[in-house]
Predict the 3D structure of the following.
Amino acid sequence: MASFLGKGWKFPIRVNARGSLSFVEGADSVEEAIYILLGTPKNSRVMEPDYGCNLSRYLFAPNNANTRALVGEEVRQSLIKFEPRIDVLSVKATSDPALANQMFINVDYRLRSNNAHHNLVYPFYLNE
């Protein structure tokens, strides 16, 4: 199972107590890959310009139901296209009325290798 889910550098890249780079594997590797995907704007990788999620297009957008639906769909499409190790069960962007500049993107997914259900919450700031 770990070979299918992979092993890679822990982000942010850092040196551990033994003086070598920190790594993650298995389900943690998938979770980190999702964070990287959502935090990477499209056209920011020279060799793979389509990789990423265009969340930056929603910066300074109003925090309303329409924007939350568009953000959720953007994330869902990016995960389907670029993360083959998971089945996307649901993506929902929510916000607290008291925090008009912040959205929480809730991603429910299932690992294809073992059908384990996972949930990830990605904070997205419309403006700071």
